[in-house]
């Protein structure tokens, strides 16, 4: 997606060989016009998948996911990173380890909003090692629903997440694929 790649080139800050900061349009301030274009692109890519719900994880996945839901006319659910006491008896739970943050979170989704037979499109802002996406996919499967695909805004292709998800049989579509952040420069995959 050229608009997104241009934004990354113009505003992304390479913090290290591993981490790209995009606080000006995705992770802190958010660009609604860009988010809408991202939503349209996910809707186009997954138009034939029979999507009935979109699932993301708080917080930065919410903006691209709600825009995709708006275009596709389906509800969007965000997994919470901490158990809510009021939902306790009626939640799906998975553990997600973050390599970037070196911590494990429990992610939760209410059983009310994920049903057998649902076709669920998973959306997230970054794909690194794939832990969050695998956790979300496991929640979909716990519910007896199926994963329609995984839509990612920025994939770091030099980390293992995309390959592992594809090996596990999921369709992964990333709107920008970063091949390397070496020497302080963003290099995109072809
Ligand atoms: P993984 O799920 O693919 O294995 O990724 P990982 O655990 O490494 O990522 C943990 C958090 O760090 C996630 O955000 C993810 O979006 C973010 N992240 C990973 N790599 C980068 C990067 O290069 N740049 C930026 N800006 N973020 C990165 P989170 O903790 O869920 O935070 P948020 O959604 O509340 O923003």
Structure description:
The protein is α/β, with parallel strands linked by helices. 28% of the residues lie in helices and 32% in strands. It contains five helices and ten strands. The strands form three sheets. It has a six-stranded mixed sheet with strand order 4-3-7-8-9-10, sandwiched between helices. Helix 3 links the parallel strand 3 and strand 4. The longest helix has 14 residues. The protein is globular. The model has no long low-confidence stretch (mean pLDDT 95). Bound molecules: guanosine-5',3'-tetraphosphate. Guanosine-5',3'-tetraphosphate binds next to strand 2, strand 7 and helix 4.
CATH architectural name: 3-Layer(aba) Sandwich
Order of helices and strands: HEEHEHEEEEHEHEE
Helix vs. strand class: alpha/beta
Mean pLDDT: 95
Strand order of the largest sheet: 4-3-7-8-9-10
Strand content: 25-35%
Weakly predicted, low-confidence segments? none
Number of domains: 1
Number of helices: 5
């Amino acid at each position: 997606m050229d608009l997104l790649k241009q934004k990354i080139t113009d505003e992304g800050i390479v913090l290290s060989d591993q981490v790209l900061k995009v606080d000006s349009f995705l992770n802190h301030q958010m660009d609604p016009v860009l988010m809408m274009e991202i939503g349209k692109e996910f809707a186009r890519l997954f138009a034939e998948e029979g999507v009935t719900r979109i699932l993301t994880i708080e917080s930065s996945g919410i903006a691209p996911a709600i825009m995709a839901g708006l275009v596709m006319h389906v509800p969007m659910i965000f997994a919470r990173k901490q158990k809510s006491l009021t939902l306790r008896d009626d939640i799906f739970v998975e553990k997600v380890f973050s390599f970037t943050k070196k911590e494990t979170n429990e992610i939760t989704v209410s059983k009310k909003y994920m049903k057998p037979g649902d076709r669920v499109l998973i959306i997230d802002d970054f794909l690194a090692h794939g832990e969050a996406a695998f956790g979300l996919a496991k929640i979909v499967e716990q519910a007896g629903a199926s994963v329609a695909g995984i839509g990612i805004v920025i994939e770091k292709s030099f980390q293992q997440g995309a390959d592992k998800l594809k090996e596990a049989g999921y369709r992964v579509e990333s709107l920008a694929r970063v091949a390397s952040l070496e020497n302080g420069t963003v290099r995109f995959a072809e």
